[in-house]
Amino acid sequence: MLPVITPMLATLTRAPFHEAGWVYEEKYDGDRIVIYKEGKQVRMLSRNMIDRQDRFPRIAEAIRDLRPATLILDGEVVVFDGKGVSRFQLLQQVKGEPVYAVFDCLFCDGADLRRQPLSARREALERSACFSKASKFLRLSRRLASDGLEAFRIAKERGYEGLLAKDASSAYVAGRSKSWLKVKVHQEDEFVIVGFTKPGGARKYLGALLLGAYDRGKLRFVGKVGTGFNTKTLAMLYRKLRPLARGDSAVAEPVREKDTIFVEPSLVAQISYQEWTDDKKLRQPVFLGLRDDKSPQQVHLPEAGS
């Protein structure tokens, strides 16, 4: 029986850098999935242990056809746009074919590789023993450049979400690590939905979502988002939020928004935004979709190092 893996997570760093002995990969914008293969049995577990093989059956079948009897792979399920850039919105809206971008091999044919350096795990991933017969549903994670500053330039030029810098000598460890660092090109994070405003004008269902994030155990208000919706999305959000209505706000500070309905902080939204204002509110946020692979308690203010 293969062990259940707690994924290794990257630590946010504010500026690109170059360090000898590190590698630089494209940062994907999708759903983190660890895949387990034992014979013909395949499990595709999200970070909160939901099996996704029913949602991504073609990826599961492609994994099932790989030669090794046992495998644990770490990667991201994504949908690419016409320019080859992964887009969370496309994945959420089921527009395009999901692909599994694989960046780590933790078990292969009975061998536990987690204590091996990343360079050795990558070799195992690239060898035909662990990744035979390339499929359009499986893709090796893309290395951008050997120099970290050049890799960041490429990521920015191509419109990627960012890049991941990884110490090639590092073992695979559970939880957040400074051996993997993420550098963002576009600001994009998860936030907890703490309420919504009533619609105005011709808009139906709701006006804007109120957003929060945890900081030192307290839920903080970070602003509202009123763009990125269509009528279908607004209807879906209203159906999910209306039963969660509560009489008071779940955030620590007063929320001074008119016509507000507060909700239990149960849903997590993916939001892109331009920057943070001086009073720690989101500037020019855009709603991208809901996430069910991360609990609200895991959503922390990005400045807090999440």
Itemize the secondary structure elements and their pairings.
Elements: E1 8-12, E2 22-27, E3 31-38, E4 41-45, H1 57-64, E5 70-78, H2 88-92, E6 99-108, E7 111-112, H3 118-126, E8 138-140, H4 148-158, E9 162-167, E10 175-184, E11 187-197, E12 209-215, E13 218-225, H5 231-241, E14 245-246, E15 260-263, E16 268-273, E17 275-276, E18 282-283, E19 286-291
Parallel strand pairs: 1-10, 6-8
Antiparallel strand pairs: 2-9, 3-4, 3-5, 5-6, 6-7, 9-10, 11-12, 11-15, 11-16, 12-13, 14-15, 16-19, 17-18
N-to-C terminal Cα separation, in Å?
Answer: 32 Å
Number of helices: 5
Q: What is the count of β-strands?
A: 19
What portion of residues belong to β-strands?
Answer: 35-45%
Helix percent reads 10-25%
Structural class: mainly beta
Low-pLDDT sequence parts? none
Mean pLDDT comes to: 92
Over the alpha carbons, how many angstroms does the gyration radius reach? Answer: 20 Å
Rough outline: globular
Q: Report on the biggest sheet.
A: 7 strands, antiparallel
Order of helices and strands: EEEEHEHEEHEHEEEEEHEEEEEE
Could you please describe the fold and organization of this structure?
The structure is a single chain. This protein has 306 residues and is mainly beta. Helices cover 14% and strands 37% of the residues. The protein has 5 helices and 19 strands. Strands 11, 12, 13, 14, 15, 16 and 19 form a 7-stranded antiparallel beta sheet that branches. Strands 3, 4, 5, 6, 7 and 8 form a 6-stranded mixed beta sheet that branches. Strands 1-10-9-2 form a 4-stranded mixed beta sheet. Strand 6 and strand 7 (111-112) form a beta hairpin. The longest helix has 11 residues, at 148-158. The chain is globular, with a radius of gyration of 20 Å. The two termini are 32 Å apart.
